[in-house]
């Protein structure tokens, strides 16, 4: 049974339709990435899945007993709010200290429990948010542009962490990303969104789909191939692709 | 003991500080300072209406404060910048309130008592209203504490945890209206926001957790109330403003303390 199933979903803000007739499903254990230009409704889709937006039409069906862990976009912690990492993680209620240590270790930041949230670097903060999502032992992780504001090395290492988490816990991942060259290689399935589902399939299929190329340009296909062969170190990507990544941010 | 007006005044001040501390922290964290001001200023209109219809001032001011807070919540995000909207509403409510008070004939009203408080005239009845209201506010915020904090950190994080941030916002709005109503007698409508914000801001450099900050804000507020009253007695100054002055001096002191800590 699917962990989550989106059926014929339409979302409208005022007079603007941001999503029309979107359907998708996430199966246990798979990593699905949603790509799409700015304003293509990626975040609205995720917000509809967590129940933060009411759909105009269609529905979101969650498998029975399925637990979802949500990692928001980089969130701003006001300097005036003092809060330690461990207190932040305890906000969920009924969380033991051992759970917190375990989740922080899983997220790759075992030593941060006593740190102030507002003092963390971008990469540390995202890992703490990941730890928060992991505490409830989710079957599905939802990530909304979790690497926004991280440099390339930081985001590559964050996605590696996600892959590790998937291997260790077997949870499925549904994520949004701008960083095509990184996520395309790490995903089992890619959904290209632009108000509606343009195309979907394995990274290779999507990268060669005409709809995808129309949105992102042909250079990304090359970057994908490049990345597949060279996982562990950085390259200067073709200018074309770089432009697109930047333009998307 | 309660026969002594100074004791009653001190108890009233402590009661307001008690309610204002946890609420004030949220006002600071959520950047609602001006929102608090608008709600408090609207209360003067409530005072006028209460006098006109011979109602309890507590009920009248609370109702108008609540109405104001709800209007602001509904109007926010509909085309006006929040600070413009609050600026318009806060000051018009104050102005309409002052005009409305002037229409009430037959009753001689000491307007200053409502603008700046009249803590030395607190009766036993007032005391029970203040402490009752303060207990409700603290209980309400304590009950919703984790949900309120989560909603304050991030709305989507709240939704994903099954918390409705709009409901939590309503809890704060109600708490604010009650606090305004009980604080009128103590510091008056013009200085209520100060009792919310200054102790919380002064507590920030001393705190590592949200709970710590709420407790520290409570202690600073209660200390300011007692010392301010004492100072008002000794120097023959107005009591409400004196309390706020002491809180402000505490804020200065903890800010300097933080400056030193950052240098090291």
Automatic annotation (TrEMBL), chain A:
SUPFAM superfamilies found in the cross-reference section: P-loop containing nucleoside triphosphate hydrolases
EC numbers on record: 3.6.3.-
SMART domains in alphabetical order: AAA (SM00382)
InterPro entries referenced in this protein's UniProt entry, alphabetically: AAA+_ATPase, ABC_transporter-like_ATP-bd, ABC_transporter-like_CS, Metal_Ion_Import_ABC, P-loop_NTPase
Hydrolase as UniProt keyword: yes
GO molecular function, one term: ATP hydrolysis activity
Protein name: Zinc import ATP-binding protein ZnuC
From TrEMBL, chain B:
Any Pfam family the entry gives: ABC-3
Membrane spanning residue stretches: 6-29, 41-74, 94-117, 129-150, 170-201, 213-233, 239-260
Entry-linked CDD domains: TM_ABC_iron-siderophores_like
Keywords, ordered alphabetically: Cell membrane, Ion transport, Membrane, Transmembrane, Transmembrane helix, Transport, Zinc, Zinc transport
GO biological process, one term: zinc ion transport
Predominant subcellular localization, coarse grouping: membrane
Domain of life, per lineage: Bacteria
Mode of membrane association: Multi-pass membrane protein
Family membership noted in the UniProt record: Belongs to the ABC-3 integral membrane protein family.
Name the record gives this protein: High-affinity zinc uptake system membrane protein ZnuB
Organism: Planktotalea frisia
């Amino acid at each position: 049974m699917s962990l989550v199933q989106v059926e014929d979903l339409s979302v409208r803000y005022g007079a603007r339709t941001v999503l029309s007739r979107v359907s998708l499903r996430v199966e246990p254990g798979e990593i699905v990435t949603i790509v799409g230009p700015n304003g293509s409704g990626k975040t609205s889709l995720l917000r509809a899945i967590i129940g933060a937006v009411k759909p105009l039409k269609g529905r979101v069906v969650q498998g029975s007993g399925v637990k979802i862990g949500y990692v928001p976009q980089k969130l701003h912690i006001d300097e005036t709010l003092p809060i330690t990492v461990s207190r932040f993680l305890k906000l969920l209620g009924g969380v033991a200290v051992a759970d917190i240590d375990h989740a922080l270790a899983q997220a790759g930041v075992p030593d941060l429990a006593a740190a102030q949230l507002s003092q963390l670097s971008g990469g540390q903060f995202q890992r703490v948010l990941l730890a928060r999502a992991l505490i409830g032992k989710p079957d599905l992780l939802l990530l909304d542009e979790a690497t926004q504001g991280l440099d390339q090395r930081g985001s590559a290492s964050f996605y590696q962490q996600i892959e590790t988490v998937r291997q260790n816990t077997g949870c499925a991942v549904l994520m949004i990303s701008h960083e095509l060259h990184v996520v395309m290689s790490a995903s089992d399935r890619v959904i290209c969104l632009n108000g509606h589902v343009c195309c979907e399939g394995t990274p290779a299929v999507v990268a060669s789909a005409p709809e995808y190329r129309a949105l992102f340009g042909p250079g990304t296909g090359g970057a994908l191939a490049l990345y597949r062969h060279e996982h562990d170190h950085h390259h200067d990507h073709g200018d074309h692709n770089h432009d697109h990544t930047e333009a998307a941010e | 003991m309660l026969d002594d007006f100074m004791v009653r005044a001190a108890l009233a001040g402590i009661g307001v500080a008690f309610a204002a501390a946890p609420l004030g922290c949220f006002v600071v964290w959520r950047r609602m300072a001006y929102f608090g001001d608008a709600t408090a200023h609207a209360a003067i209109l409530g005072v006028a209406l209460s006098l006109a219809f011979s109602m309890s001032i507590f009920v009248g001011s609370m109702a108008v404060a609540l109405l104001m807070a709800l209007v602001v919540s509904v109007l926010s995000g509909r085309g006006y910048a929040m600070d413009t909207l609050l600026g318009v509403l806060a000051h018009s409510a104050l102005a309409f309130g002052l005009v409305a008070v002037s229409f009430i004939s037959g009753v001689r009203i000491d307007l200053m008592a409502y603008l700046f408080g009249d803590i030395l005239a607190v009766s036993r009845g007032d005391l029970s209203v203040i402490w009752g209201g303060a207990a409700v506010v603290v209980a309400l915020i304590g009950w919703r504490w984790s949900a309120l904090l989560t909603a304050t950190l991030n709305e989507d994080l709240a939704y994903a945890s099954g918390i409705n941030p709009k409901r939590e916002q309503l809890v704060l709005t109600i708490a604010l209206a009650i606090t305004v109503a009980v604080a009128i007698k103590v510091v008056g409508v013009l200085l209520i926001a100060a009792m919310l914000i200054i102790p919380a801001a002064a507590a920030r450099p001393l705190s590592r957790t949200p709970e710590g900050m709420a407790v520290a804000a409570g202690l600073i507020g209660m200390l300011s109330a007692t010392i301010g009253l004492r100072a008002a007695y000794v120097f023959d100054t107005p009591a409400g403003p004196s309390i706020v002055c002491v809180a402000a001096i505490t804020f200065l002191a903890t800010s300097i303390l933080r400056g030193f800590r950052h240098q090291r």
